[in-house]
Every structure is written in structure tokens, then in C-alpha cells.
Predict the structure.
Amino acid sequence: MPNLVDLPSNSPLTEVTYYILLILSPQPKHGYAIMKDVQALSSGRVILSTGTLYGAIKRLLEQGWIKRVDDEASNDSGRVRKAYALTKLGRRALEAEVARLYRLVSAASSHSLGEPAFFEGSGE
Amino acid sequence: MRGHPKFLIWLYQVFLRLYPVDFRAEFGDEMVSVLTQAFSEAVHRGRGAVWTVFQREMRDLPVSLWGQHWSRFRKEGRLLQMENFNSATGKTEGKIASVEEKPATWGETLLGMGPFLIAPAIFITGFLVTSLFGALKPPPEPILTIVSSILVLIYVGPFLFVLGLGWVKGFPRWSYPYWGIALLFSIWLMDAATPGLRFFGYSFEHDDLWGWRAWIPVALVAVVAFLLSRIRPLRLLAKRLWQDWTRLSFAIYGVLPLAVLLAFDEVHAEEAYVVALNLLLGLGALCYMRSIYTWQRILSLLAGLLVTWAAATVYLAIYWNGRQEPWMDNPGNWVDTALWMNKLGGFLVLILLVPACLGLLRLFVNKIRPLPSA
């Protein structure tokens, strides 16, 4: 279980933000890698367009949750590609979100979800 | 299909130009690079896969464009607000609170009072001309036409110039009443006939309504101003209205001289009183221009309207009480006149406050703004 960092004003995160932070948590990645990893991590459910991806990246940069770093390893055409890395603030936000989700799932698992008929709306 | 589809990438680059300049400068190259990689990979899966990638980009484009332009709009608005706050208080940092702008200079204040000084200026000129030349024999027709046309130009020309200047300057606070009265006057003039009016040889026949011609002066000013300054002033207009809704109220306040003139229609020897009422309205405009806070500004406009309208109501109630003109079925009485003026005044107050809805919308948007999460 991650550290419970309380950032109430920053929760909950949008799904796209959550996935991007999660993907950047082990190591810096460039735009295309983020796009691919989001798709893989969400089992193909969330497929980002470039506009959505860079809109989110711009906001995260402004919030100071991620930062830009040079991606030396992927220098394929003589140009240094830009990669993005999680900052301490971004890591705290991610940890807070994971903790929040953990609490929600814990609450659900410790509670009866009711009869199927209830969800089907069969009551008259 | 070999390599990545160059045409689709070219098309994507064209659409990229729709993003705000700063966003494009910061991320444009990266976005093209990412899309190129996505296409390169999709090419191996066939034409359908490439099309799917492009379709996804196009589907998300409107929302993404809207998001970036909205974000930029808000950011610039906040910067403008902070700059204004700093210049108003001399501070370099601090809470913005409700302080929005420094008070206008006396020059700007005088410009803002302009629309309320037009009627006094016209009446005073008329009085002087009548006093000086009234006893003389009128000049022959061609000279009379030229003189009257020049007199019209003396008032209309500077007004239209200032109207255009306001546009070119990005709609500063003083410019709003000019646009308010120009737009309302054009609407009113459409249904008006001015038989006998000659303007440099052009004459209006009897019952010849102005119609679309009423919009020619304002349209000309707008076209020239737009050609001179392009889209920037319109963007500033939207930002400034969003930042301070009282500007729109000030534009509405600008039509009040016309409302006063209409209320005094058919009243004899009304000139001195109309001049006084316009000066009262001008006083409200002065207080508005010199105010800093939103509550001071709207209070200035409301006070200007209420005091002027109350004075007009008292005068008209006394004037019409017991009076019967040839076109009236019954003599007037002060109660009916006062009631009618009160209804009209209440309506004007409501109209003046309608722009506050914009302020409420702004508060609402600020409240729901999803700043913390991207």
C-alpha cells in the first residue's frame, strides 16, 4: 500500500491524468510511448489522440506534476526527443489518488453490494 | 501503402494551425512526430488502421481546440486581472479580491462622458446660432444646405471617429457608451423618416424610411476599424467583458440620452431641462469611470439612471398634468404620467442589470473550474 499523502483538493484525478502519472512513475517517457502505454494499461479502452495527450501534458507541466527531460536514448534522427518525468509533487498526487481509490475499493469489498434485482430496478 | 501517409500528415499540420500560437510552438513538432510514429505503426496493419488513427485525431480535434483556446483565454484574463490589480494598488503580488482596474485618467473620463455631452452641445450650439443669426435673413438654399451639412458633420464626424478609435484601441472602458448609443440609434433610425433632410445633394422624400441606410455609418466605421486592427480588438472586447460585466452595463447606460430625448418628445421648450438631465447622466458616467470596484461602478450607473429618471418623472408629471394637445383624446394627469415613467424606469434598471448574469456565469465557471486535475 502506498503512503497516504493527503491531497484532498487535487482528488479525484481524471482517468487520462491518472494513467499518464502512473506510466511516468517508474521512468521518464516520450509522447508516443505514453500514448501506447495508456492504451496497453487500460486494455485498449483509453486511446489518446495527440490533442488530448498534449493538452493533458501541458496542464501537468503547468501544475508542476511532470517536467520535461531530454530523452538521449531515443535520439533517432539527430534530434534529441523530449521526454517527460514525474516530479515529487506529481508523485505525491499519484500516491494520494491511489490511496483514495484503495479506500473506495476497500469500502466496496467490505460491504454487501445487494441483490442483482436491486440493480435491475425490478422493484414496483 | 508504403511509409507513412504524407498527405494525412500534411492535413494534420494544417489543422494544427488552429491551435493557439503558444501551444503550437511548444508542442506542435512533438505532436507531428507522435502522429508520424502512430501512422508508421498503423501502416503495417493496413489502410483501415491508418484511417482509424486519423479519424480519432479528427474526432478529438474540436474538443481539444476548444480546451486550448479556452485555457489561453482564461490565462490571459487572469494575467490582465493581475496586471490591473498591480497597477491599481502598486503591489507586485497579492490577492486579487474584487479590484479589477485602476481608475481612468481624466482624459479617459472625459471621453467616457462624451455621449452625455452631445445633446447639451447641440442645444447650446442651436441657442447660440439662433441668438446670433436669428434676426438675419436666411441665406439662399444651396448655402443653407451646405451649412447645415457641415453642422451635422461637426457632430457626427467626431462621434464616428471616436467610435472607430474605441474599436482600434481594443474597446477601452470609455468606448462602451459610444457603441451602445450608436447601435440603438441605428436601430431606431431604421424606422424613422426625415422628410426634407438634404445631405450634400442627397434628399429624403416624404415617408422615406432610413431602413438599411441607417447602418451605413456604423458599418463603415466597423469595416475601417477592422481593416486597421484586425481580430485583436474583438478578442480584447470578449476578454474585457468577461473580466468586468459592468462594461456592458455602461454600453446600455450610453443609450439613456436617447431615452431622455424620447421621453421629452412633444414637450415644448424642453431644451434646458434635457441639457440638465444629460449632465446628470454625465455625472454618473464620471463616477463610473473613476471607480475601481465593481460595486462602485454599478452603483454609479444605477444612481445616475435613478436620479435622472426621477427628475424627468417629476418634470413630465407636472408638465402633462391637465395639459391637452390636439392629438390627445383627454387631458393628461400627473398620476398616469408618473406611473408610465416609473414602469419605463424600472424596465431600464432591469436592462442595466442584465449583464450581471455574465458576472454570475463567471463566478460559476470559476467555481467549477477543474484546475487540480488535468
About this structure: Residues 11-109 of chain A form a domain with the Arc Repressor Mutant, subunit A fold (CATH 1.10.10.10). Chain A touches chain B at residues 9-14, 16-17, 20, 31-32, 35, 47, 49-60, 63, 65, 81-82 (CB under 8 Å). The CA atoms of residues 65 and 90 of chain A lie 4 Å apart. The mean pLDDT of chain A is 81.
